[in-house]
Amino acid sequence: MHKIGIIGATGYTGSELVRLLHHHPEVEISIITSETYEGKRLSDIHPQFEGIVDVTLKSAKQIKEVNPDLVFLALPHGVSMDYVKELAGESIKIVDLSGDFRLSSKNVYEAWYDKPHSYPEGFAQAVYGIPELFRKTIKKAKLVANPGCFPTGAIVAAAPLVKEKLVDPKHLIFDSKTGVTGAGVKAKVVTHYSNVNENFKAYGVKTHRHTIEIQEILSQYGETETTVQFTPHLLPVDRGILTSVYARPNKQITQGDLNNLYDQHYSNEPFIRLSTTNPEIKNIRGTNYIDIFPLFDERTGNIMAFSAIDNLVRGASGQAIQNMNLMLGMDEGLGLDIIPLRP
Amino acid sequence: MHKIGIIGATGYTGSELVRLLHHHPEVEISIITSETYEGKRLSDIHPQFEGIVDVTLKSAKQIKEVNPDLVFLALPHGVSMDYVKELAGESIKIVDLSGDFRLSSKNVYEAWYDKPHSYPEGFAQAVYGIPELFRKTIKKAKLVANPGCFPTGAIVAAAPLVKEKLVDPKHLIFDSKTGVTGAGVKAKVVTHYSNVNENFKAYGVKTHRHTIEIQEILSQYGETETTVQFTPHLLPVDRGILTSVYARPNKQITQGDLNNLYDQHYSNEPFIRLSTTNPEIKNIRGTNYIDIFPLFDERTGNIMAFSAIDNLVRGASGQAIQNMNLMLGMDEGLGLDIIPLRP
Amino acid sequence: MHKIGIIGATGYTGSELVRLLHHHPEVEISIITSETYEGKRLSDIHPQFEGIVDVTLKSAKQIKEVNPDLVFLALPHGVSMDYVKELAGESIKIVDLSGDFRLSSKNVYEAWYDKPHSYPEGFAQAVYGIPELFRKTIKKAKLVANPGCFPTGAIVAAAPLVKEKLVDPKHLIFDSKTGVTGAGVKAKVVTHYSNVNENFKAYGVKTHRHTIEIQEILSQYGETETTVQFTPHLLPVDRGILTSVYARPNKQITQGDLNNLYDQHYSNEPFIRLSTTNPEIKNIRGTNYIDIFPLFDERTGNIMAFSAIDNLVRGASGQAIQNMNLMLGMDEGLGLDIIPLRP
Amino acid sequence: MHKIGIIGATGYTGSELVRLLHHHPEVEISIITSETYEGKRLSDIHPQFEGIVDVTLKSAKQIKEVNPDLVFLALPHGVSMDYVKELAGESIKIVDLSGDFRLSSKNVYEAWYDKPHSYPEGFAQAVYGIPELFRKTIKKAKLVANPGCFPTGAIVAAAPLVKEKLVDPKHLIFDSKTGVTGAGVKAKVVTHYSNVNENFKAYGVKTHRHTIEIQEILSQYGETETTVQFTPHLLPVDRGILTSVYARPNKQITQGDLNNLYDQHYSNEPFIRLSTTNPEIKNIRGTNYIDIFPLFDERTGNIMAFSAIDNLVRGASGQAIQNMNLMLGMDEGLGLDIIPLRP
To answer: Can you give the pLDDT at residue C231?
Structure first.
């Protein structure tokens, strides 16, 4: 049994970690922390756990005395970095669910996140945590930067195209649509029911931080400089991201070629389901799957790809556990064998 | 390992049985049937199972050769009865999820279901499957009539009041609100998105078949003749039933008395969570829990009770598995240890 | 043309007043106020008005110099009372949409609203604004207390029963379900999308302030002391209230008698639609209608009635305009001839 | 007063025509037809009209004897063409809401609609009914082909770019998201509540009929051959379409240039609202407005534009009335002065 800590229990990624780890056969949760709700029970904050996980929340100051094998940082960006710094000399492995160590450098971070970075040494250590692309380095990592929700679906959908230099890397378009939980647990104007329900809009056009994350990781993985146009939209649903990718092939191609390409990259991946129909977010709800449908339109000459993920699972806590499994030498899929909740 | 069959895989209760049994440690699904889709894969009908449960659907004619220990009949009422008749001489145990054997007699059935009953012998054999009320007889049953979704939440909420003769049995009011999946998988005017979304209404007032089911079971369990007013309403959600019960005490009572009463009945029950706040359907989503909040209003003199269940799990397939566990001598909660999917 | 002021433009009732009055043929909006957003345009706060109603918001201090014929107070309770006091000596008529003058006395108010009342003289002046019940006094009123959203649907549905002494006045049950806009425009935990969506629960059981409002008005109108059990629930929709009423007849009755009773009371009312099917909130969306379906269940001996209203229109701003029309001597229905927005 | 007929009253476009025309000051509805429901009242089919518009439905065979000035064909494609043929020799003007006369020729129609066309003569007569682009010819038209819902929002958003030859016409991408009413009133698998709610997916990728409509009209209006990639997605809302347009400029450009361009084209248009924030479908709900936000991303070099319409109003019945107003010599905006229903 591995001992695990969850730092930050009051958001949705924290509660999802508890939900998923509860059934993990080789892990026990040794500590769950919240500075705001220290002393309260988890189920006081997240009532669905009542009678199931009623554990008392501790302060993160107790982490070192508990000395877990690995901690998840389920904290906002700008906060995570201080914990990573604090734990730098310890043997505790870290999966950071924030955006603090996903980018390439302090400069890039500060330009897109508009705040100073307190632990720039972390950028070199951090491994970007998409197992299908970076499995080998994740296994050896001390610090994994768990990917953003949008980047996960976007990068995995486009990676084969960029890696094989099949498409013009300067004209990649990602039109994404996310459920409301992506905006977090806090009550804000943007999460007021009557502003979301029966509504739909784009937001963060040109400026969303996940733009640079997608662009840097695709450039790194594809060993090509890419330019990414990323447009998020807000769906009136709780969970799920559908991303529609548009790209221009720079050589002759057929649908068969495209299918082969995705098969080569992903057909052995346990959490990727290649599809020949349009992915639906309800088909992956509550799970770690990525459903992908690549498509070539002979009439227009465009390549498209559609990907569907659960933003809280594959886009956050599920992928974090997949990374933990690799980092601690366990089977990658442990604890993540879930059937989507549909209907 | 017990061998299990699922008769009727194309509805929601069928797919929920597969979802839940997939993780059951002591059961294997030996056959899943559909007369309409024989030869197709389960995931052709329910795409969320793609790559997880792709088993081929068989005809129910093959049941006897497979010879499972128990079958679930996930069939419409009026169809189930023929299968029960057919399997009457076999050693195969049956959990019938339809309404065909829940009532007391052929006469009552035909009056409320407005169709002839082909196997009236079954009424005497069938045990009504709410484990918290009828656990002992369920353990020995060959045929369990799995309760209706509304009756489950209504009966469990009111049973202590009736059993202890605390309330006027002639004036019981159940105001229930259900998610759309209660109307089944078929496309109908009533399930058209734009008839449900942003809408709310009562239906089946005075005539809903679950009225007599609630009334008969409460009368039987409480050993008192009851009169039940039951009003279902249709909620714009997928899953969940909230029932608000109104009753008149026929003796002096306090909130403390009420709490004690419910504690005595239910505090040791693994799937009942007694609450002191208003139950929410999202807190039990995807699970077998019943959340109950009993309440006495000193000002008006009324007793109220609120119960929340997931209509597809506790109101159908989850309770069916709980019954199966009892009938096959396993731990009652096996396979049902699930954390609600919230948000 | 009558000159009208709207005090408090930032909430939903304020924006609904503007939406509805925009088409009123005999009224012009002379001033719209907001202390918080003074100097901003209405469409900065409510973007749907962009290019349609872009008027600049003023301070309420300018009301007297504008000197309108009538003002609507679209303010929170506890705030309205000060404006009523301030305008006491003026000739400006007032429709107060808050709860400050709906109850019978300072004592009752303070007991249920848990705050001191600064203008108790107003209770005697204020006329309760349900035109179908109190039309004559409304016409002569200087101050109308516009009814609460729940009380409107509840009282109109039950008034004929109480007035005719047909039912036991001590055992009236109102089980109501409301859309989220009833909770106001502010971002709160209770209005967070993911706490409402796919969810349903009761709230304010035993203690909701509309309980006493329903009880006092039914007692007054029916000239009988009533006891009201009122249970609100929160629906995942924007607008609409469905109320289910349960009552015990205290004499022999038939469905025909019931129909006659409601016909006598309401068949000439332009905004009441008596129905013989279950009212749906989508059938009255955006309008001032009340759909009512009274029902007698011979089997149980209970009388039921279902009513549907739009909480922002008939439950607030539409009824306020209906009252204004009466107070200023216009046709009662002016500006309220709207077809429901369905789908 | 102009006399108007509505052929086909049972769908959503039919009921929207009635809703909107009810307040039109210079038009009276002389006949509403339904072959299926002849003899029933409109409010039997669309219950929201109860007590407001209860008119009896007639057969379309009575059109000629009523002899209206103009008829709306609110019929499925493949059906409309026969009515147009039938009325060819009459003086009755026609606004056809189906897709039967929107394309350039019988050949193109049959290739994309996969059915024979019975009245190819109509293609030459029909004027495509986007008033902002084709106002002059609409005024003189006998037959207007009312645009598809998606094409309306897509074409109006991109027309200035194509007209001014500012962008590469071969690489136009339209990523659209529509509410469920676009799929019509019929109960189908795709409109089942539980297949739409909490779900999102693309559909009709590469093959949707609106693709060729957008492409042909943009080519015609821009006098350039265009290639259009159009991807519709299904939103869990009743009404509204948001379209995100992506294009490559073929010359140097700034945001200021873009703003000027759209101002020149649209600043005098009563139903186009140019925006500098992200359009939201709830801000145009129930109305004839098109909200447009054009945007240049200096970092990527892409032009984007976002447009929001109500698919049933501006995407169908509202635009049909705007066309009627022009065809009958009335003010273009008559009957369409509506404030969006938000919240």
So the answer is: 98
* C2-22 mean pLDDT: 97
Phi, psi (5° rounding) for residue D230? -125, 125
Contacts of B284 in chain A (CB under 8 A): 48
Q: How far apart are CA A325 and CA A69, in angstroms?
A: 12
| Catalytic-residue membership of C149 | yes
**CA-CA distances (angstroms) from residue D63 to A39, B311, D10, D20?**
76, 50, 17, 21
In sequence order, what are the residues at sequence separation of 6 or more whose Cβ sits closer than 8 angstroms to the Cβ of residue A63? A5, A7, A31, A33, A71, A87, A92
**Where in the sequence numbering do the catalytic residues of D fall?**
149
The verdict on ipTM greater than 0.90 is yes
Q: Which residue in chain D is spatially nearest to C197 when comparing CA positions?
A: D198
Residue C326: predicted pLDDT: 98
Map residue A127 onto helix, strand or coil: strand
Q: Kindly report the nearest CA distance between residue C280 and chain D, in angstroms.
A: 9
Closest chain B residue to the Cα of A283, Cα to Cα: B48
Chain A residue with minimal CA distance to D297? A206
DSSP letters for D153-208 = HHHHHHHHHHHTT-B-TT-EEEEEEE-GGGG-SS--GGGBHHHHTT--EE-STTT-
Identity (one letter) of the amino acid at B118? S
Q: What is the pLDDT of residue B148?
A: 98
For chain C, how many helices (H) and strands (E)? 12, 13
**Any idea where the domains of chain D sit in the sequence?**
2-125, 150-311
Of the candidates D343, D338, D310, the one whose C-alpha atom is nearest the C-alpha of residue D240 is D310
Which regions in chain B score pLDDT beneath 50? none
Q: Which CATH number is associated with domain B2-125?
A: 3.40.50.720
Q: Which two tokens stand for residue A162?
A: 């960029």
Compute the distance between CA of residue A304 and CA of residue D229 in angstroms, rounded to an integer.
10
pLDDT, tens digit, 9 for 90 and up, residues A289-335 = 999 999 999 999 999 999 999 999 999 999 999 999 999 999 999 99
Per-residue confidence at A130, pLDDT binned at 50, 70, 90? very high
Q: What is the C-alpha separation between A320 and A20, in angstroms, rounded?
A: 10
**pLDDT tens digits, one per residue of B221-271:** 999 999 999 999 999 999 999 999 999 999 999 999 999 999 999 999 999
Output b/e per residue, C200-222; b: 16+ Cβ within 10 A. Answer: bbbbbbbebbbbbbbbbbbbebb
Chain A residues touching chain C at CB-CB below 8 Å: 12, 180-181, 185-189, 191-194, 196-198, 236-238
Question: Count of residues for chain D?
Answer: 343
Cis geometry, peptide bond prior to residue B343 (ω within 30 degrees of 0): yes
The whole-angstrom distance between B37's CA and the closest CA on chain C is: 31
Structural contact between residues D48 and C340, judged by C-beta atoms closer than 8 angstroms: yes
- Residues of B whose CB is below 8 A from C242: 200-202, 233
C38 close to D271: Cβ distance less than 8 angstroms: no
Instruction: Please indicate whether, in this complex, the C-beta atoms of C192 and A197 are within 8 angstroms of each other.
Output: no
Q: How far apart are CA C308 and CA C177, in angstroms?
A: 10
User: Which option is the CATH number for B150-311: 3.40.50.2300, 1.20.1050.10, 3.30.470.20, 3.30.360.10?
Assistant: 3.30.360.10
Of the residues A6, A32, A74, A149, only one is catalytic, namely A149
Average pLDDT (A58-81) is: 97
Q: What is the 3-state secondary structure (H, E, C) of A226-268?
A: CCEEEEEEECCCCCCEEEEEEECECCCCCHHHHHHHHHHHHCC
DSSP state of C180: G
| Residues from chain C contacting residue A181 (CB–CB below 8 Å) | 194
Reported pTM: 0.98
Do the Cβ atoms of B49 and A239 come within 8 Å? no
Q: Output the average pLDDT for chain A.
A: 98
Structure-token pair, residue D199: 């779900």
Give A10-52 pLDDT, tens digit per residue: 999 999 999 999 999 999 999 999 999 999 999 999 999 999 9
